[in-house]
Amino acid sequence: MRRLDLDLEVPLIPRYFDLLVLLVAERRRVVTRQEIFDRVWGDVVVSDGALSQAVRTVRRCLEDDPKDPQFIRTVSRHGYQFVAVDVIEESDDGPLAAVAMPAVILEDQAVIVPETDAMAPLLDRLLRRPPFEAATDEERHDAAEQLHALGTAAVLERLDSQPGHAEARAILREARWDVPGAGAVPLIASPAPWASSTALVALRFRRAARYISNRWGSAALGGGVAGVVAGIIGGVALWLAPESQADRSTAVALAAVGAVAGIVGAGGVGAGLATAEALARSRRTAALTVCGALGGALAGGVAHSVVRAAIMGVFGQHPPSIGGWIEGLVLGGAAGCGYGMSTSLSPGGGLAGPRRAARVWTSFVTGVACAVAGLVLTLAGRHLVGASLDALASAFNGSSVGLAPIARLLGEETLRPITRAIVSMFEGLMFGSGLAFGLTHRPGKKFRSSNFEGRS
């Protein structure tokens, strides 16, 4: 972006430039914060803090005072409006000629720094050296973005000899994802690899803590709803099947079982996926697969132990084979793999937030991946919810949730391989679809304001 009054160019990352273009194009009205999120960050979920940081950066580039705005006016609890007068629109005649960048404008200071030392004030802010000892994490991240625009390799060469370079390198590493064309920021090859890596992990964990609670809750809710739907469908199928002892109440009972299984399973897997998505910026699909598997294994192991303890306490006998941590491990890994392959993050970061058809596609792909996992588990002789319920029904006389009536519809007398495969694939499809649909829920403004105080 060029400051015409000073005849200089000011570095501005594409996402922030898109925000400025939107405000200028819609300058005759106030643009709501929600509209900005939808049009500038439509492909990811970010916090109010990310928008506030973007507005601050654009204002700094324009030397605009928020208390007496000449360019961007804040409309309390509503949004922003571009208020500069005499805006002239011209058609593009091709790319602008490259010009030297003679200066960098410092926040809260009307100081022009010579080109030969353009990095110095930004490095001071990144390292929290005087007069920037009180620089916030957002301000340091913004300084890192501007330093990337000036040249990553040159920044690292100057940075590595400074006190506090390990944490600063971690911030540069994180900021490189937000600046298209930014150079690599290696950690292992740095002067303090352990300190830099530890700082990066701590940085990402601080951000992850703000994401995970709501993200996994939405995933658990989606899995619970899918479990209810699957239970109702299974109950109705049993009720309508010939020679079945099931009645209408069976559908209610299976819906309740499906809800509990879905909430527990999707809660565990969703927590793993939310953690991976908040922490991993590279090798994202692999991280989602591993963390999803770990979350699923934990949820499956806990559910298995609770069910076994309950049956032992009530009936005084060991229950038949029921699903546990292995089933959770496989399903969780499949969910993470499907979710990772069907979503991607833009350079702007944040959590993947596919919308409309893209969200349905993500749910479908994740569901198919879990259906394939269900088939693999069946071929390996493992039990998902349906097969576990059938085993419990066989162990206790008078149960109406045995799946033999459905098996007979498919030409088998009992829950043989064909029936087990179909039931398990259906369960996997419903579980994965519900999990992904809940995981990609976009939080409303109230949630963003109250839970995301820092940079996303």
Summarize the helices and strands and which ones pair or pack.
Blueprint: E1 2-3, E2 8-9, H1 14-25, E3 31-32, H2 33-40, E4 44-45, H3 48-62, E5 72-75, E6 79-82, H4 119-127, H5 137-150, H6 152-159, H7 165-175, H8 193-240, H9 248-279, H10 284-315, H11 325-342, E7 351-352, H12 357-379, H13 385-395, H14 404-409, H15 417-439, H16 445-451
Antiparallel strand pairs: 1-2, 3-6, 4-7, 5-6
Helix pairs in contact: 1-3, 4-5, 5-7, 7-8, 8-9, 8-15, 9-10, 9-11, 9-15, 10-11, 11-12, 12-15
Supply the key terms.
3-stranded antiparallel beta sheet; 456 residues; Arc Repressor Mutant, subunit A; elongated; 4% strand; 16 helices; 3 domains; two-stranded antiparallel ribbon; mainly alpha
Characterise the protein shown here.
With 456 residues, the protein is mainly alpha-helical. The protein folds into three domains: 2-82, Arc Repressor Mutant, subunit A (Orthogonal Bundle); 115-191, no CATH class; 211-451, no CATH class. The protein is 61% helix and 4% strand. Strands 3-6-5 form a three-stranded antiparallel sheet. It has a two-stranded antiparallel ribbon with strand order 1-2. Strands 4-7 form a two-stranded antiparallel sheet. The radius of gyration is 27 Å and the shape is elongated.
Report the average pLDDT across residues: 81
- List the secondary-structure elements in sequence, H or E: EEHEHEHEEHHHHHHHHEHHHHH
Instruction: Return the domain count.
Output: 3
Quote the beta fraction: under 5%
Strand order, main sheet: write it out.
3-6-5
- Structural class computed from helices and strand pairing: mainly alpha
Span between N and C termini?
Answer: 24 Å
Radius of gyration: 27 Å
Q: What's the helical proportion of residues?
A: 55-70%
Largest sheet: 3 strands, antiparallel
Would you report the number of β strands? 7
**Shape category:** elongated
- The helix tally amounts to 16
Spans with pLDDT under 50 lasting ≥5 residues? 98-116, 445-456
